[in-house]
Design brief:
ribosomal protein, Ribosomal Protein L4, Chain: A, rRNA binding, alpha/beta, about 200 residues, Ribosomal_uL4_dom_sf, six-stranded mixed β-sheet, Large ribosomal subunit protein uL4, RNA-binding, single chain
Length: about 200
Amino acid sequence: MKLDVIKLDGGKAGDIELDAELFGLEPRTDILHRVVRWQRNNAQAGTHKVKTRSETSYSTKKIYRQKGTGGARHGDRNAPIFRKGGIYKGPTPRSHGHDLTKKFRKLGLRHALSAKAKAGELVVIENADSEGKTAALAKQVKDLGWKRALVIDGASVNEGFARAARNIEGLDILPTMGANVYDILKRDTLVITKAGVEALEARLK
């Protein structure tokens, strides 16, 4: 499939032939869901913790005698049924991450790129060069109509562009190796440089 290549100032810079194996698939939501879930679970801290009855700060003295009171049998006030007692089977620190094969992760990225291409939310630019001036880049982004955009550059990000984009709300930039399904799907517009397209094709082939 062919797509027009534009410059940051909105001018045309020719066109590019996109690989159908990366940008021409029929997007599958089940694959995208599995990869996004894997990403978000791996990012979850898992540091939640509650106190069990052995960790609460009550006395361990038996609160009243075992028999003869007419009440239930109890040990100490740390029991889970009492106010400020320990929590029974509460959360403890753990990893929420799970495995997903490298082959499937690559497949998910291909489907994410294809989903953006199919929705008409894919833009290819000649390069992401900038003098590092936020005001100038913000005007270009506004003129191009990008509200929530992710820019994927080549092997490394242009330092001036990254510096200028840092204070622009809704604009993020990643190198090719940082491209991921969650960030791609979260943005309204996916912008890839020509170098980024070549690097993605080399990475996902």
